[in-house]
């Protein structure tokens, strides 16, 4: 089963944006992320609606962060991108007639709810600033050079 990497991808984009002193185009972000600019624009539109980014059209336009990294949590971004499914596993059927499957569903549904609550709580504890600090620590260990176009080179 394919994993949903939407949250991971948008967090990646936001941290790249945090390193830019000027607006950055969807095309540049898409090149850095090995995706299509339309994918970037679609995701960024939801973040713009929530006030986390701004955009300007035309020559010299692009995307800019519009939030304080200390104030925004991973949970905030998760909510802004439409709350993608957290767990890839689920019940075989949601309304089974079989009593055995009802017992299985009850146990699994409870475990799934507990796991999702814990994960959402943890996402609420981590800020974009904490991710940025982790990145800067890793950057310092590697020599302190950062460039969007070469950031993904080994």
Automatic annotation (TrEMBL):
Highest taxon, organism lineage: Bacteria
Gene3D superfamilies noted in UniProt: Winged helix-like DNA-binding domain superfamily/Winged helix DNA-binding domain
InterPro entries (UniProt xref): Tscrpt_reg_Rrf2, WH-like_DNA-bd_sf, WH_DNA-bd_sf
A single cellular component GO annotation: cytosol
GO MF annotations, alphabetized: DNA-binding transcription factor activity
Record-given protein name: Rrf2 family transcriptional regulator
Species the sequence originates in: Tianweitania sediminis
């Amino acid at each position: 089963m394919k994993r949903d990497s939407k949250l991971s991808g948008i967090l990646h984009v936001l941290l790249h944006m945090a390193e830019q002193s000027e607006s950055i185009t969807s095309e540049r972000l898409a090149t850095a992320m090995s995706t299509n600019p339309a994918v970037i624009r679609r995701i960024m539109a939801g973040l713009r609606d929530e006030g986390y980014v701004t955009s300007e059209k035309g020559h010299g336009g692009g995307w800019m962060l519009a939030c304080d990294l200390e104030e925004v949590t991973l949970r905030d971004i998760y909510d802004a991108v439409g709350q993608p499914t957290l767990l890839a596993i689920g019940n075989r059927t949601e309304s089974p007639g079989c009593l055995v499957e009802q017992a299985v569903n009850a146990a699994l549904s409870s475990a799934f709810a507990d796991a999702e609550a814990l994960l959402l709580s943890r996402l609420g504890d981590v800020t974009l600033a904490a991710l940025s600090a982790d990145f800067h620590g890793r950057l310092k260990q590697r020599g302190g050079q950062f460039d969007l176009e070469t950031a993904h080179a080994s």
